[in-house]
Design brief:
The protein has 270 residues and is α/β, with parallel strands linked by helices. The protein has helices spanning 12-28, 53-69, 120-123, 153-161, 177-191, 237-243, 253-261, and strands spanning 2-8, 33-35, 77-86, 89-98, 102-108, 114-115, 118-119, 134-136, 139-143, 165-170, 194-200, 212-214, 220-223, 230-234. The protein is 29% helix and 27% strand.
């Protein structure tokens, strides 16, 4: 399966060129799945410590417009996040868009920071504490939205469910950048899956670079930079399947089997 990760700014004067470049990249490389950054192309409202209903309405509308842009990528599958309001609750909701079925809601972000520059709990209600697996064509995947990459307990559950990919849309800062790539390696090795992450960028430096594709052995297959804002790699889903039976996953086989028997831990798609 050919997968693409990317960096995208949200400022209108830079976004148009970056989006056009991404569309050209995915079409020329015949990508099948694109992972977008957290709140791709949308205003980072969480940087304000005061909720503004008008601003929320504006980004919710912009999120709907964002979905209309996805066919331009020329791919079968896109995963990202968007602002939605469900039963009066404001959510940072992951979605899967497919050329065949359109938009499908996935889980919403549960673990959120509340600190200067990241007032997410002010803007969003907690989403889903469960981390199920989903399907995109032949691949199964889980979604850990940005901060949720630190939910280390989810990786054993993903291994038990047999996921092929852990997808993480991010909006992480340059200041914390050194901590994130090793975390992606841990996610890949522990889950026995490919870890893909796409990060936002902006001209202020509030969001840092570093989108990646990491294989189940923890090898970094691709890492974006200022000179390479998107990257596509062919990944072998059988490698992820076989990784579940190798160290360190097999060292936890008994625990994994017990987890699989628990409610909500059935194999993906069953």
């Amino acid at each position: 399966m050919r997968v693409t990760v990317c960096e995208l700014p949200h400022e209108p004067e830079e976004l148009d060129a970056a989006w056009a470049a991404l569309c050209e990249h995915t079409r020329s490389r015949r990508s099948q799945l694109v992972l977008l950054p957290e709140f791709a192309m949308l205003d980072p409202v969480w940087e304000s410590d005061r909720f503004d209903s008008a601003r929320w309405s504006a980004i919710e509308a912009a999120g709907r417009n964002q979905i209309q842009c996805l066919p331009a990528l020329g791919v079968e599958h896109v995963v990202g996040t968007r602002p939605v309001c469900v039963d009066g609750r404001r959510l940072n909701q992951a979605y899967h868009w497919s050329a065949r079925d359109g938009i499908q809601p996935l889980r919403s972000k549960y673990f959120m920071p509340e600190q200067p520059g990241n007032w997410e709990a002010t803007w969003f209600h907690p989403g889903d504490p469960a981390f199920p697996c989903y399907r995109a064509g032949p691949a199964s995947f889980g979604v850990n939205i940005c901060t949720e990459l630190w939910a280390l307990e989810t990786y054993g559950r993903y291994a038990a469910q047999g996921v092929d990919m852990v997808l993480s849309p991010r909006a992480t800062s340059a200041a914390t950048a050194p901590a994130w790539l090793p975390l992606g390696v841990v996610a890949a090795i522990r889950s026995g899956a490919y870890c893909l992450s796409s990060n936002r960028v902006d001209r202020t430096g509030a969001c840092g670079r570093g989108s990646w594709i990491i294989d189940p052995a923890g090898t970094v297959l691709a890492l974006t930079s200022a000179t390479m804002r998107c990257a596509t790699r062919e990944i072998d889903l059988m490698v992820a399947t076989e990784a579940k039976g190798t160290y360190p996953r097999n060292a936890l086989r008994a625990w994994r089997q017990a987890l699989s028997a628990a409610k909500g831990s059935t194999p993906c798609g069953s």
